[in-house]
Amino acid sequence: MNRFFKPASLLCIALGISWLFAGAAFADREATHQKIIQQFGGTVSDQKLTGYVDRVGQTLARVSDMPNVKYRFTVLDSPMVNAFALPEGDIYVTRGLLSLANSEAELAGVLGHEIAHVTDSHSSGRQARSIGLSILSTVLGIATESKAVADLTQMLGSGYIASYSRDQEFEADKLGIKFIRRAGYFPGAQGDFLYSLQRETELAKKKAGVTGRGDPFGGFFASHPNTADRVERAHLQAKKAEQRQIEAGVTSPRQARNEYLSVIDGLVFGDSAEQGFVEEQRFSHPILRLTFKVPAGFQLHNQSDAVVAGGPNGNRIRFDMIERSNYNSPTDYIRREWGKNLRLIKLGNTRVNGMDAAVGVARVRQNNKSTLYRLVALRGDQGQYYRFAFADPQETNHHVMSETVSSFRRLSPKEASKLRPKRIQVVQVRNNRSHEYFAKKMRVEKVPLDLFRVLNGLQPGQPLTKGQRVKIVAH
To answer: pTM of the prediction?
Structure first.
């Protein structure tokens, strides 16, 4: 959750984006670009890294089918593993995706794929139809009763960008491989990275206890559909591209693994201090100095504008903060501002760990289904409001609210100082080092061995060689 997020203004921002994307032609590319950055929590400030990504992207752009497009490559400060393109040539990759790649050639494969979506004109209609509405669906705004509380399942699922079709993905893979072949990169890198993405998504679902197909976390496969034969097709196309390189005299296509690893060494992994940290069921923010815990069975997800959680029986939680309000009383704040367009069936005062608070209850009917919402506003000592919204479709889980809200408290300066981000650390393999050896050095709570293998593109039993460089997650 971004430290400077102001929920009261987000609806205006989202409406602006919806207007900007109302047609295929954009009135203000720069304004749109800035709003995308804001929605994803800002950009990575490391100029060495961002310059590197831009150089790789511009190299591919020059050999693309539309080299005259003014491409711009942006690294978003988001732990989400994702990349997407907008029609006018703005291409975005997240630092979460960069932490997963293992070579410059793999990065080139991602950027080539996104350039292909621009050159093949897939983006225009798709963006116009969806991005504004998708961002609007994440707003916990109060517009009308039916839209008073957004469907929180959207926050954990579809993300910002609508899905490409299966055929569009195959075509973008094919064009992307053509572009990286023209640029002198190893064509097989695109299929290798697609396989890593597939493994990363499965690992994320395993950690969250989620089953089934798709990508429920708003990541790459939420907007780039994965199919069983996509990786296989990419490798077959890469073989043809490699043969063309050989015929052209290119016998050692560029992979640049060590160069790439040197650039991402030290990259923040997961949440940053500005966004706060999720550890299991607990969220803690070292700058805002606050913490709370959700009940067992809920999966926390940190977004740029809020912290959301999904749990059993369709239960959802959303937490955010508003820095200022005209109302000093939490009950007045809910009645007259936050919930003014809701038909509140209950509203009352309470205290939470020394803070004045209020709880409002409303029943909202959406799509012929009734959902009970509990809104909790806690007033901080500087006049800010901390806000929890609980969606309870079954109307049986009052304990979710009580457990979560009662756990909310301020952190001491000492506690806050101990919260530090995790980072990618590149280390060199010595003699007789195993996967298990490096897994013990991973500063993660769940499945460290699986994560070590996925981060490094390794299979169980695949030997490590002396001098090889690998990624671990460290503080």
So the answer is: 0.80
